[in-house]
Request: fold
Amino acid sequence: MLRTIFRLSLINLFLWVLTGCNTTNSSTVSTQDFKNTTTANDGSQLTPLIAGNTIEVSVEVDGRMEVSRHRAGLSYQGNVTLPLVGDVKVGGLTLKQARECIAETYGAYYVSTPVIMLSMLGGSEEGEWGYVTVMGRVRTPGTVPLRDVDGMKLTQAIQSSGGFAASAKQTEIRITRIDNSGKKIQVYVNFEAIGQAGHAESDVNLIDGDIVYVPERIF
Reply:
């Protein structure tokens, strides 16, 4: 039951990120065009927070540290519990958006504007070069740390997420990226063509901030 709730929460957060958090238009491009697209954004600002992530929050007001390095994990509902203000919903937000949300929440309790210091903790799994997010029908959805400045292949990301779930539709994997202009672009990849048909060119290279979604196969 908990596993089902967790899966649904992740999918809902993912869909919210793609539809509710950004008003820019999205377009579907070819695999080659997608490979040629890069982003000038700081990747840590693009990776959405999801259930299971842990953040560290410090709050400074008028030179006083009101909250010092408080660590909180995201619940299945996307909430974190913070001192004084209680539950704050940050699931589906980037770190930048979460910082603004937390600042607004704490701002209601102080005359002066609070300064929020926020980071996502990854422990030993922290990625030196950022993260990609793998959602949908994989065995362990979540963020995958990048170990190389050049990113990682789609096949590596799927493997790092425990592989496909039994009901995964491998022929229509969707990858979403935000380009330099802030526009969402997406590409659909037939994963089966990479291995079974030997189309290595279909194995897209993922960069910091990319979001991979594996849909469910309709039986």
